[in-house]
Design goal:
heterodimer, A: alpha+beta, two-stranded antiparallel ribbon, extended, B: mainly alpha, three-stranded antiparallel sheet, 14 helices, globular
């Protein structure tokens, strides 16, 4: 066998082997680069504290659907919307706004939404009966920090209440007796999540050094009671149970009926 | 003056197109012009005709996004332009990174870095197709448009129109990479968008044609060409440049003193071959 093959060829690789090795190199490098790339993309898209333009679809869908063209930014008549730049620590190229710098002024014709070419900003989600309606927009939710809000201290301030474009609905003032002085009232701003659009005019108007009322994405701001708790006095709330299903957990103890387990276990342990 | 025009006419036109398009996009955001709004990812021409990056749309598809009609129309407009007419013309006539890599390439030549590194390139030009494939796989697994989150092209273009932030660092990385690491490194080896247009534009009409009978084998065209593997027929055969990797930058045409290279239309090329 070895007589047939000239000595030189021993070290030279066959074309087939060369091809296989080259493909292996390519695949190996691609895997390596792919993991670095994936890790990077995972990190840069992880930002949660981000306020999107009105009509934005769910964040996970938004990240795959937004093409980062900036047409919404150009359509915005204020300098509200920005595209995330390298260094902003936000998903690169996607539109966002910072209410303390420039809130959404809630234009009735919502110019930023219909221009979106990809549907990342969805007109139907901000329309009532086919007509654009900014009042049902859902960019975030105002959250009051009761400890730094001076109205909660008893100092009279209703800057956020006055600034709210849905005056008297998204923020109301709750009156409460000030026991400290005995003759004054607290006038506490209370945000109502069903009416608040997250425009951020309250955050912009807040008089404290760092805003005591600020907009958070609803995902971050809101909790969820889940199906274990129902407002029994509210017929509508029971509708939530429609899709609920029982969760059954099996443990060592629950395998037998309760009395069997208790009695049986007792005897074994004692004797 | 005539000589300058003769030797740089396409280069001047390309710079004019690149900067002019940038200026129109910039004006749309800064002064509300409606000639060309958006950016290279997706734009609107004259407020009516949509135009979208087909590669970005492909990543969206891989990521599982719902494709809007408006986007698909935009993709059809851009893709058919490059498919039927321009080939990889995007790279040399539109892309702003082209000016950066051309500058690096020029500096390589005048400073003599090319002589240090030698002619042999340590990397394959097929890397871009691997990157292209990877971008689609990562898009599918991660559910985001993978290349769009790292693309220096959109970073820079968006940066010029909407504010650049640290985007200048991306420009610098590519410039240094092309200058010191790999000749024509980004545009000619790595960029998956170039790879995408290489495939899409493979059958486009506008082609560079070589006329072997005029060629004096000076090889100026091969020196100047950023994708010189496509010029394999120089001095051998009168063939059109059929590789999709040719960017139609026309540098070879303007440096040729012997009229051995010119633009032609593909169908006429084929007629010549069959002798009609």
């Amino acid at each position: 066998m070895s007589e047939n093959i000239p000595k030189k060829k021993k070290s030279a690789l066959s074309d087939r082997r060369k091809f296989i090795l080259n493909m292996a190199r390519g695949a190996g490098l691609a895997t390596m680069g792919g993991f670095i790339w994936s890790a990077f993309v995972d990190e840069v898209t992880a930002s949660q504290l981000l306020l999107r333009p009105p009509g934005a679809i769910k964040e996970t869908d938004f990240l795959k659907t937004c093409i980062k063209c900036g047409l919404c930014v150009e359509a915005c008549p204020y300098d509200t919307l920005m595209l995330a730049k390298p260094g902003d620590h936000k998903p690169l190229g996607t539109p966002f706004f910072t209410p303390r710098d420039m809130p959404c002024y809630m234009c009735p014709d919502i110019p930023c939404v219909p221009v979106c070419p990809t549907g990342a900003l969805d007109s139907s989600s901000v329309s009532t009966d086919g007509v654009l309606d900014i009042n049902i927009a859902d960019m975030g939710l105002a959250v009051v920090d009761a400890e730094s809000c001076i109205a909660f201290w008893g100092i009279q301030c209703d800057a956020c209440y006055r600034a709210c474009p849905i005056l008297g609905e998204a923020i109301t003032i709750e009156y409460q007796k000030n026991e400290r002085t005995g003759k004054h009232a607290f006038m506490k701003p209370i945000v109502h999540s069903d009416a608040c659009t997250g425009c951020g005019m309250c955050e912009r108007a807040c008089v404290t050094e760092k805003p005591a009322i600020r907009i958070l994405p609803r995902e971050v701001a809101q909790g969820k009671a889940g199906n274990y708790y129902i407002k029994g006095w509210d017929k509508n709330d029971e509708k939530r149970l429609k899709d609920a299903h029982e969760i059954k957990t099996t443990t060592e103890i629950s395998k037998q009926s309760a009395s069997d387990k208790l009695n049986g276990g007792m005897l074994e342990d004692l004797y | 003056m005539k000589r300058v025009w003769n030797n740089y006419r396409y280069l001047i036109l390309r710079r004019f197109t690149q900067i002019g398009l940038l200026f129109l996009y910039f004006g749309a955001n800064a002064w509300g012009w409606t000639i060309l709004q958006g950016n290279l990812s997706s734009s609107v021409i004259l407020g009516t005709i949509p135009m979208s990056d087909p590669y970005a749309a492909l990543q969206m598809l891989a990521a599982g996004a719902v494709m809007a009609t408006n986007l698909l129309v935009g993709v059809a407009v851009a893709a058919s332009f490059y498919f039927f007419i321009g080939g990889r013309a995007f790279c040399s006539w539109v892309c702003p990174i082209n000016m950066v890599t051309d500058a690096a390439n020029y500096l390589r030549e005048v400073t003599g870095i090319n002589k240090v590194t030698g002619i042999k390139q340590p990397a394959s030009r097929n890397i871009r197709y691997w990157v292209l494939g990877m971008s689609l796989i990562i898009s599918a697994i991660m559910g985001v448009t993978a290349f769009e989150f790292i693309s220096p092209i959109s970073m820079v273009h968006r940066g010029i129109v909407f504010g650049i932030g640290f985007g200048w660092a991306a420009v610098l990385i590519i410039f240094l990479f092309d200058l010191f690491v790999l000749k024509n490194g980004w545009c000619g080896h790595v960029c998956p968008l170039g790879g995408f247009y290489s495939i899409l534009g493979k059958f486009s009409f506008i082609r560079v044609q070589h006329l072997e009978e005029n060629c004096t084998l000076c090889m100026k065209c091969k020196v100047v060409c950023p994708e010189n593997q496509v010029l394999h027929m120089i001095g051998k055969e009168s063939l059109p440049v059929l590789s999709g990797e040719c960017t139609n930058c026309a540098r070879c045409i303007e440096v040729c003193d012997d009229d051995a290279l010119r633009f032609s239309i593909r169908s006429m090329v084929q007629n010549k071959e069959t002798g009609e």
